[in-house]
Specification:
Length: 96
């Protein structure tokens, strides 16, 4: 792989990392929000003991789980991109 191609790929990976890290920041905030909503719904379901409250709790818990999975996927993409970046940097400096 040519030096200029490695530089272009490094730039691309850096830009993608920046975007995924920004998305991860948002996802982490949303996870906290949905976890709080799920906990509130759980407490309301315990106190009221109605089918509607239990359904709201299940829905809120499902949303929190979905957001947690999204956050985990973002973390995995970031980890993968960081590995790719490390490999590209190794190539870049081994060719210099």
């Amino acid at each position: 792989m040519t030096q200029s191609r490695v530089e272009r790929r490094l730039s691309d990976v850096a830009n993608r990392l920046k975007r995924f890290r920004a998305d991860l920041d948002v996802a982490e905030e949303q996870c906290l929000h949905f976890e709080d909503l799920a906990e509130d719904a759980r407490l309301r379901a315990l106190v009221s003991e109605t089918p509607a409250a239990e359904r709201q709790h299940r829905d809120a818990a499902r949303q929190a789980e979905t957001m947690a999975r999204h956050r985990a996927r973002l973390q995995e993409k970031i980890r993968s991109l960081e590995e790719e970046q490390d490999d590209l940097l190794d190539r870049f400096y081994s060719d210099v």
